[in-house]
Design brief:
The complex is a heterodimer of chains A (106) and B (119). With 106 residues, chain A is mostly beta strands. Chain A is built from no helices and 11 strands. In chain A, the strands form 2 sheets. In chain A, strands 2, 4, 5, 6, 9, 10 and 11 form a 7-stranded mixed β-sheet that branches. Chain A has a 4-stranded antiparallel β-sheet with strand order 1-3-8-7, with no helix packed on it. Chain A is globular. By secondary structure, chain B is mostly beta strands. Chain B contains no helices and 11 strands. In chain B, a hairpin with a 5-residue loop joins strand 4 and strand 5. In chain B, 41% of the residues are buried. The mean pLDDT of chain B is 97.
Chain lengths: 106, 119
Amino acid sequence: IQLTQSPSSLSAAVGDRATITCRASQGIRSSLAWYQQKPGKAPKLMIYAASTLQSGVPLRFSGSGSGTDFTLTISSLQPEDFATYYCQQLNSYPLSFGQGTRLEIK
Amino acid sequence: EVQLVESGGGLVKPGGSLRLSCETSGFSFSIYSMNWVRQAPGKGLEWVSSIDGSSNYIYYADSVTGRFTISRDNAKNSLYLQMNSLRTEDTAVYYCASGSVRAGKYDYWGQGTLVTVSS
């Protein structure tokens, strides 16, 4: 299953709303997770089951979607949110990740 | 506190072998599925392999099938990845992560270990 994220990069200001999409090449129900990765660090789980917020993740993060189209939204960007975000499908093996979306400060 | 610590990375020549380890603590290792994910320099994440808690179900990416072997020792709370016939394209940071398809997430990750395949 191929996952295509868009955009590949996004420039936004602190306080802006950011939206990242992930499209699957075939239906994956709600078996999608989102990770945040900062340079030189391991990925961090943000959202799983398409819309469930991982414990400790700020409420400004939200996820939606099912089937083939998914969205990660950050309602009001904070300085610590600028990072690369990846979606991952956990519907069936072989598992796969999207190519990543780099969120940069404008 | 949950901890996953990878080791065993390094520089190896093409065709060579390397064994990665992931020592864990702070959770019930034996009931968790475990995974290896890699990231080539400047590139995205790539799923490599998964193993369930009892070692009954094992999966590999096509890119490593027949060359890599995942295993675990529940008595030692440790996960392993035996990598043979290494290629330059296997150069990456290798992360171990806990999680499963059933849980729908990879919730804990190690800091990664760098494998460089070069002559």
